[in-house]
Amino acid sequence: MSVKPRIPCYSAKHKNPESQIARLAPFCACALLLFSAPALAAEVKEGDEAPRWMLRPMNATASGFKSVSINDLLAGNPVQPKAIIVSFFATYCEPCKKEMPFLQNLYTSYKDKGLVIVEVSIDTEPEAIKEVEKLIADNKVTMPVVNDKMNVVAKRHNVSRLPHIVLIDGEGTVKRILIGYESSQLKVLEADLGVLLGIGRWKNLPTPAKQEKKK
Predict the structure, then answer these.
(1) What separation in angstroms does the CA of 127 have from each of 123, 124, 159, 182?
(2) Three-state DSSP class for residue 79
(3) Whether the Cβ atoms of residue 97 and residue 113 lie closer than 8 Å to each other
(4) Each residue's pLDDT tens digit, 13-67
(5) Beta strands 115-121; 145-147: pairing state
């Protein structure tokens, strides 16, 4: 019985995308690629139209979303977003677990200003999916969380390392792709969201360091 390989976690020590996968194993426990080269879709780049997909949320009651569809969101159903964050994660990725409460904080603070955040779990095993449900409950997550069990959505977005954030504007254009979970990247996200949401620069954007101190 073959074991399905995993998308590796991002390693801050090696940011060169060409050497990252080859050098990742010593620095990350999850060091196997999910996709073989022929299975990869055309690369999604900043400035491209965002891939379209639909999945049902694992927390439909808490999120208020019966389904999550990029097409529906851009059409204003159930809400009209100014910015959409799609974040790919897995339970074996520790940075992803740290990122979840940060994104929930953003969602709680700015969803009324037009921000929609969708967390996409790429976990496939039943035990891991149960752990996702626990993370949702422990973090009191109200942003929609979907399970991409077959990794179809991840393939469409060419996800090769985790965590992987895609920022989409209200017209459906990919404005930013961020890989990893570092303060420097959050500052980029802060600036982008400030423009898209029309709120200028945020003074109280939470950072990983601040969150760790609260625990």
Answers:
(1) 9, 9, 22, 28
(2) coil
(3) no
(4) 444 433 333 333 333 334 333 433 334 456 899 999 999 999 999 999 999 999 9
(5) parallel
Exposed, middle or buried by CB within 10 Å (0-12, 13-18, 19+), for 194? middle
Q: Which residues contact 191 (CB under 8 A, 6 or more apart)?
A: 201
pTM assigned to the model: 0.80
Query: DSSP assignment, residue 33?
Result: -
Beta strands 115-121 and 83-89 are: parallel
The amino acid sitting at 103 is: L
Range of the domain at 112: 18-33+43-214
Query: Mean pLDDT score of the chain, rounded to an integer?
Result: 82
> Does some domain include residue 22?
yes
Domain count of the chain? 1
Mean pLDDT of the 191-212 span: 68
19 DSSP 8-state letter: H
Give 111-126 pLDDT, tens digit per residue.
999 999 999 999 999 9
